[in-house]
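job 3f2a | input accepted
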Amino acid sequence: MYAVITCLRDEHDPWLVLIAAAICIASAMASFGSYHRAVSSRRPSIWMIGPGFIAGMGVWATHFMAMLAYQPMLDIGYRLDLTLASMVAPVLGMTAAFTIVRGRGAPALALTGGLVAGGSVAVMHYMGVAAVRLPAEVTWNLNLAAVACVIGIAGASLAFMLDQGRARSLRAGPILMAATICSLHFSAMGAVILRPDPGLALDGDLISRQVLAFATGSAVVLILGAAIAIQLIERLTQRATLDALGGALDSAPSALAFFDSTRRLTFWNAPFAQILALYGVEPYEGMPINSMGERLSDSEALRPVLKGERLSRSALDAIVAQGAFPTPDERVLRIEMGDTTDGGFVVVMHDVTAQTLATEALGRARDAAEAASRAKSDFLSNMSHEIRTPLNGMLGMAQVMAQHPLGEDQRERLTIIRESGATLLTLLNDVLDIAKIEAGRLELETEDFDLAARIRAVCAPLAAEAAPRSVNFVVDISPALNGLWRGDGARIAQVVGALASNGLKFTEHGEVRVQAGLSVDEAEVVISVQDTGIGMAEGQVEHLFKIFAQMDASPTRRHGGAGLGLAMAHHLTGLMGGALRVVSHKGEGSTFTLALPLARSVSTPPALVQAPRPLRILAAEDNPTNQQVLSALLAPLGAELVLTENGRAAVDAFTQGGFDLVLMDIQMPGMNGVEATCAIRGLEREQHLARTPILAVTANVMTHQLQEYGAAGMDGAVAKPLRAGELLAAIMGVLEPGEPEESVASAI
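job 3f2a | predicted structure (748 res):
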C-alpha cells in the first residue's frame, strides 16, 4: 500500500490522474447504460458489441492517460505494436463479460463475468506496461502485482452483482467498475520497480508521449462518439416506439390520460381530448388537474359530485364511486383510475352507452316478464277459485248423498258424477302444479307419514277401476316399509298415482303391478310400476317426460289425457332428490322405477283416544252452496257450526267467544279472510285470549298464497273442492292434544 501511495505522490501528475479517473468513470457509465439497453433488445448478444467496445476503449484510454501521468524523470517511449495490441484485449474481454451476464442476476454468472472482465483489464494493463521503453531496468513486486489482479476480478464481479440488485438505480455497478479499473492500474504501477541504467538506449519503432496523448484523446473522442451514437439510436427507436404507441392509443376505444405526482397532465390520447372538448377544455402537457376541472364543475352530470369544488384526486374518486355518468353528447361514460409507481395516476374513461342501453332494455324486459308472470299467476289463481267453487258444491253434495240410501241406478249415476268431478279436479291440480314449476314456486313439505298406507290409498281407486276391465291390479308392499317415513307424502302419492294410472290407461288386458321395497343397500325406497300394456318405441320414450307430450297426438287417438301426469312425476322426483327410470318395449309393456332417498321418522304415531266431545266451529263462507256443503260434511262430527257470510261478520261473531276452531274462506266481500284473520289475532293479543286455530278453506292454494295465509296467522289450509277425509284430517291436525281432537278422530 505504501508503494502505491508513494508511486502516486512522487511519480504521477495529479491532474492527468484525475483526467484518467474521469475518463474511466464516464466510459463505465456509458458502457453500462448501453448494456442495459442492449439487454432489453430483441438480439442482446449482438448489441453487446456496443457496451463492450465503449468499456474496452475506456479501459485502454484510462490506462494510457494514467501512463501519460506517470513521470519517473526518465525519457519514455512506447512500442507501437504492443500499444495497439493492448487495445484489443479489453474490448474483447468486456464484450464477453457483458454477454455472459446479460442482465441475469445469478451469482455464478456475475462471478464468471467478473473473472473475464477483470482478467482482460489485467492483461491490457501488463501488455501496456510491456510496451513502455525507458533507460532503466524494470522489475516487479509480484505480490503487489497479484493483488492488483485479484482487485480487478473481485471488483468487476461485485460490480455486476450490484448492477442486478436494488443499487442499480444508484449507478453503483458502473461506479464500482470504474473504481476497480483505477485501483488495478495504480496497484500494478506501485508494483513496478525501476533501476535507472544509462547504458540502455531507446531504440526501435517507438511512439512519443505526444503521439500517445493524441491517440488517447482520439480514443476518448471515439468513446464519446460511440456513446452518443448509441444514445441517438436509442432515442430514435424510443421516439418511433412512442409514436407507434401513441397512434395505437389514439385508436383505442377508451379515453386515457396520465398525471404525474404533482397532478399535472403528462400524456393523453385522442378520445380523451375529444371528451374534454365537449366541456370546452383543450388539454396541454403540464396542465394542472384543477385547471381542467374548472369547466367540468359546470357540468350538470358532475355538479352534484363536485359540489362547486375544483377537480381533484378526491373528486375523481367520488366520480368513480358514482359509476357511469352522461356527457353533453348523450353518451354514458364510466371512469376508472389507477396509481403509478412514480406517485402519479392514470385515468381511463370507457364509453358504456351500448351496455347501459342494453341493461335498461334488459331491465324493461325483465319487468315486463315479471308483470306477465304476475298476471299469469293472478289469472290462474282466479280461475282456480272460480272452478273450484262449483266443483266444491258438486263433489261436496255428492259425498253427502253417498251417505244416504240410494237405488242402484242412482248410486251408479252418483259415482259417475264423483269420478268426473275428481278427474276434473286432478286436471286442475296438474295445471296449477305446472304453473308453479314454471314460476319456480313449487315447494316440497317435510312431514312424518305412513308410506305403505299412502301407496295403498292412492292405488285403491285404480284397483276398483281395473276390476271391470279384467285387468289384474296388484299392490305388493314389502314389510320393510312399515312405519313412519320423513318426506312429502302427498307428492310421493301423487307420483305413484300418476305412474299407476298411466300403466292402467295403456293396459287392456293382463296385469298392472305396483311393488315397493328397499334397495339392495337399503339406502333408497324403490317403487316400481310394471304393466303388460302396449309399450313404447325407443323414440317415444325420449319425449315421455315432456309437458303435454302424448304417445299418440292424432285426432283418432284411443287413450286420453292431458300429458301432464308423467311430466309432473318426473319433476317432483327430481325435487325430492330421486330418480325415475323407464324401460319399455313396443307391444310388451313398460316398467317405471322410482327411487327415493327417504329417511325413517324417529317419531311414533299418536294414539287416538275415544273421548267424544262436541266442537264449536265458526265458519266464514259467502257462497250459499258452499255453506250447505260445509254443514253437511261436518254433520257427522255433531259439532255446533256458526256460519257467517263475510270476514267482518266472522270477527264480530268471534268476539262472543267459545269457539274451538275457525274455518275461514279467503275471497269474501267487505273483509276478506286474510284481513279477518289478522283482526282475530289482534283481538287475541289485546284481550290476552288463548290462540284459536284458524284453517283457510279456499280454492286459492298456490304456494305464494299459502305463504300469505301463514304470515297472517292461519294454522293451515284445506283446498276446495272439499273432501270429507281431508277436511276432518286438517281439523284434527290443528287442534291441541287433549282438546276436541278426540271427537274428530271418532267421527273419522
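job 3f2a | The chain has four domains: 2-235, 255-351, 447-600, 616-747.
job 3f2a | closed
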